[in-house]
Amino acid sequence: MQAELTVAPEILGDKIRKPIDRRTKMWLVRSLVVVFWLGSWELAATHWIDPFFYSKPSAIGARLGDWFTTGTAFGSVWTQLFITLEEAVLGFAIGAVAGVVLGILLGRARFVAEVAAPFIKAANAVPRIVLASLFIIWFGLGLTSKVATAVVLVFFAVFFNAFQGAREVDRNLVNNARILGASRAQVLTSIVVPSATSWIFASLHAAFGFALIGAVVGEYAGADKGLGLLIANAQGTFDAAGIYAGMIIITVVALLAEWLLTLLENRLLRWRPPVQSDVHQI
To answer: What is the pTM (predicted TM-score) of this model?
Structure first.
């Protein structure tokens, strides 16, 4: 008994210290990789490669500072960012809801799914980026054409995961629920939807990135505001630093959205048993 009391705090201390040490080391290595990459790029652009084509970190930082302090050629960078975010969020919400609803319904209706399968595969095979030009003809240069592009990109990413999630529901669990008198609606809301939630959230992490891509591509094809317009203008004026600056802003927004989605997922799926990937989360 005495030995247990002596050893237990040490074991507990190791368990507390190890994750902290591992996380610190991980961020240290990540920081070193970034510093090495940026330093190598800056050095190469100063001495060996042409910064006109490849730019360099100091020029990109100066362009970002210029955009956030004095504004862009099309007004405040915050306005451009807000427009792109508005398009992406609307496209993400509409595409995700449509993908989840249709995915779950078709996942539970085998005959309808078999009838619709060739049409869905054909629609998925259409190069969706090209649709941005078609949407501009249909809806003009405003918000609607960019939202439509984002919706198309998000929908299929979410639909296939929701469909597969609804198909993977334990049949024995569904049969037992029906034997106990559960209606179709109760089976759907109490068993199918919760079982498919993990699949759906897995697709949502990538879906917001697709929504951003749709919004930016739509702006790139034709717009009067947005980050895609800034990138298109930078390309037209051979401003490589401007292109990189636009890419960095979009990347930061995507990472923040990913962080928020992870927080939401962890909150909604607290009932889920921990898996190995949760322990060693990247």
So the answer is: 0.79
